[in-house]
Amino acid sequence: MTGIVEEFLALKEGTDADVLAMQVGDFYEFFAEDARLVADELDLKVSEKSSHGSSYPMAGVPLSELTPYLKSLVERGYTVAVAEQRGSDDTTREITRKATPGTLLEATGADARYLVSVVRDGDAWGLAAVDVTTGAFHVTEVTGERTALAELGRFDPEEVLPGPDVRDDEGVLDALREDTDATLTVHATDAFAPGRATHRVREQFGEGTLDAIGVAPEGAGARAAGAALDYVEETGVGVLASLTRVQAYEADDHVALDPTTRRNLELTGTMHGDRAGSLAATLDHTVTSMGARRLEAWLLRPVQDRAEVARRHDCVAALAGDALERDAVRETLDGAYDLERLAARATSGSADPAAIRRVADTLERLPALRERLASSPALADSPLKGILDRVDAEAAEDLRETVDDALADEPGGETGIFARGYDEELDRIAEEHDAVVAFFDSLAERVKAETELSRVTVDRNKTDGYYVQVGHSQTDRVPEHFREVKTLKNSKRYRTDELDEKERALVRLEEERAARERELFEALREEVAAHASLLQDAGRALAEVDALASFAEHASANRWARPELRDDRELDVVAGRHPVVEQTVEFVPNDARLTDDRRFLVVTGPNMSGKSTYMRQTALIVLLAQAGSFVPAESAELGLVDGIYTRVGALDELAQGRSTFMVEMQELSNILHSATEDSLVVLDEVGRGTASDDGISIAWAATEYLHNEVRAKTLFATHYHELTALADRLDGVRNVHVEVDERNDGESVTFLRTVAEGPADRSYGIHVADLAGVPDPVVSRSRDVLAKLRADEAIDVRGGATGGEETEQVVFDLGSGELRTGGGADADADATSGDATAMADADPDPGADASAGAEADGGRAGGEAALDADARAVLEEVRGVDINNTSPLELLQRVNEWQKRMSERDE
C-alpha cells in the first residue's frame, strides 16, 4: 500500500469536494488535511501514515459506519466525495458519489431537504426545487428578483445552484446568502443552456411533459429544471429513477411569505432558532415523518385556492367531530414508514432488506385505512376517502404481496433474508447449509459421547477456522485422528479430516447462499424501485391524512373554530388567541375586525402590554386558515389573502454592513413594493431607529402610502402617538389600543392585554423600565424628567427645571436631543418636537415630502464662550453621542453621569 496516499491525493485533486473518503480494505480512510478536518469535526483519532519518505495524518472509519459520519459532515455544510474499491485487490478505486447538502440521501427525520436551481433570463426567473430523499420536484417561473427570492425561501433549501446570470450579479448572490443558510454551489454553465436543459427534462419526464405542465421549452423554468437534473446525476446519488413526476406551480398559487415574515411569525423556528416554541412544533401531533413534513409544508405554503382550503377544512371538521374515529385513524397510521424516502432509497440501490420489509409493512395499512374511512359515518361523507383514491389500490396490494411473500419477517445480514418457499434453488442451498451448521452445532456433544473427553467445545474464528478445543487436563485422552493446531494457556485446539471437509462445504454453501440471496434481493429491490411512483403516491396520501388528523387533534384539544371563507376582503375575528402563546399562559382573547372602511388599525399602548402578540395572532389566524387548519378563536370570517408581510422588532446585521435602521427600512421597502390590496400587513414600529422627527415623518408617509396606494389590510403598532391623528384624516384608518388599569396617580399600573377602540394616551415606558430592573435612581430621575417635559419645561442637566432667573444655564432638551446654553426657560419655550397638529396640516399625499424640521441652534455660539473647561467638555461629549445607535437606557445613564460631573464642578 505504498501508493495509497498518492492515490488519495490524486483522486482528491480531481474532485471539487471538500473531503474525500477513500475505501481501503474494510475502512474508509481520510489523509492529509482531510484527516485533520474530519478529526476536528467528528472527534476521530488521527494517526500517521508514511508514504515514499513522507508522513501524512490519517483517520478512518469502518465501511459499515460511514453513513453517520457522512451525514454529520454534509449537514455541517461540507461536500464529501466517496471513492470505492473495485475488484478483489486494493489497487483500483474510483469516485462513485459526491454527497452534498442538497443530495444527502441519508437524511432522516421529517424535514425536507431541497436542492434549488435558480435561473434568470432578463426579468424572468426560473426555479426548480428537488428533494432527492422523497422524489419531490417542483418548477416555476416568476417575474422579478423579489418574487424569485421569496419563492426560493419557501423551500428553505440546503443547497442552491445559481445559474450564470445569477452568479454574475453580486447583489443577487448577497441576497441569497442573507435570505438562506444554503450552500451556494457553482455548477457547469452548459448545464443551464436552454437546449441541453430542455432535453434533460424531456429525457427524465417524457417528451410532452413541459407542454403538459405549462412550462415553456428552453425558458427559465426548463433551464433550472434541467440543470438540477444534471447536478443530481453528476453527484452519483443514483435517485433519478425516483424523480417520476415534475410539478409546475404559479407563485400566486400560494400566500406570499417572505423570509422576514417566516422568521417574525416563528413558523418553523423561534427567533432563537429553536424548533420548540414554533408554530409547526405546536401543531405537530403527527404520527409519521411523512405527515410532519406535509404539515410543515402547508404552514410554509398556505394556498389561495378557495376550493382546496375548503376541502381541507371539511376533512379537519370530520376528524375533529369524532374523537373515536380520529383516534382509530391515527392508530392505523402510527408506525407507518416514510414511503417517499423508501422509494428514493430503492431506486438509488441503498435500500437494505429491512427497508424493503418496511415498504410491505406500510402498504399493509392502506386497506385498513380505506375500510376505516369508508365504514365510519362521520368520515365517509368527507373528502378524506378521496385522498386514498389517488393510490392504485390493486397495484399497491400486488406489490405488498410480492414483498411479503419474498422476505422473512425480520430479514437481516447477508443470509436469512428470504422466506422459505420463495426460491427453490435458495431453499436447496439453505437446507444443505443448515445441515452442515447442524453438524458443527452437535459436534461437541458427539465428541463427548464417542470419547472419554468431558471438557470439549467447538468454535470458529478467522485464523483457525472451525476447531475442537480440549482442556489441558484431558489432552492425553484425545483420539489419534485429532490434529493439534494451536496450544493455549489452558487448552489445545484440534482439527480432523471430517471437520476440514465439512468446513469446506460450509464455506462453499455460505458463498452460494449469499450470492443467491444477493441476486434475488437485487431483483426484488429493482421491482420495488420500478414502483417508485406508486410508493410516492401512497406516501403522499398517508402524509396528507396524518397532517389533517394532526390539525383536527389540535383543534379539538384547544377549542379552535372552523374559519368561514368570505367572498370579499374583510376579516372578522371574535375572541382570537395566539396559537403558541396560549399553550403557556392564561390568554386574554381579543377581536380583530378589518373592513374596506376600517382597513388600517393604528395600535397604541404600553410596551409589554401585548400589542405585538395581538398583531401576530391576527396574522397567524389568517395563515392557519389558508393552510387548511381551524383557528384559535371563538369565530373567524375572512377573505383570502395573497400575501402576509411583517416588520417586527429591530435587528442589526453589521456583518453585512446594515444597521438596525437600514434593516428596518429595507423591510419596509419590501412591504411597500410587494403588498397588494389583497394582502395583510403587520408593522410593529416604523421609524424608531432614527431621530424622532425623521422617524415620525417616515411612519406618517408610510401610513398614507399603505392606506391610499396599496390599500392592504394593515395593523400598525407605534409609540408615535402623533400618528393617531391620521384616523381623523384618512377614511380607512382607525385607532385601537391595549388597555391599562392605572391607580394611585400612576404608581400602580396593570396591563390588561385587552384591545379597545381609540388611541392610548401614553406608553408607560418608565413602568416597563422599573419592571425590567433598571436602578431606582434612574427610574426616579426618569419620572422627574417626564413630569417636567409634560409641563413643557427644559431639563437642567444639574438636576432641576430651568427657572426664570437670568443666569447662564446648561440645558439638555430631550425634545431635540441637544445640549444648549442660554438664558433660561424663556429662551427654550419653543423647543418642542413631534407636533401632531403641525403634521396633520401637512399634505396627506404619500408622494409629498414628509420630512420635518431644521435643527435648533439654541444660541450655541454665544453661550459656549461663557462656559468653563469642565462644562465645555461635557458639551463636547453630548455633541459626540450617536443618538441613532445608542439605546435609551445608555442615554439615561450618560445623562446621569453628566449631571454628577456638573454637580461636582459646582461644589
Tell me what you see in this structure.
The chain has 907 residues and is of the alpha/beta class. Among the domains are: 96 residues, 3-Layer(aba) Sandwich (MutS, DNA mismatch repair protein, domain I); 139 residues, Nucleotidyltransferase, domain 5 (2-Layer Sandwich); 198 residues, P-loop containing nucleotide triphosphate hydrolases (Rossmann fold, 3-Layer(aba) Sandwich), CATH 3.40.50.300; 133 residues, no CATH class. The protein is built from 32 helices and 30 strands. The protein has a 7-stranded mixed sheet with strand order 13-23-24-25-21-26-27, with helices on both faces. It starts with a helix and ends with a helix. This protein is involved in the repair of mismatches in DNA. Belongs to the DNA mismatch repair MutS family. GO terms for molecular function: ATP binding; ATP-dependent DNA damage sensor activity; mismatched DNA binding. Keywords: ATP-binding, Coiled coil, DNA damage, DNA repair, DNA-binding, Nucleotide-binding.
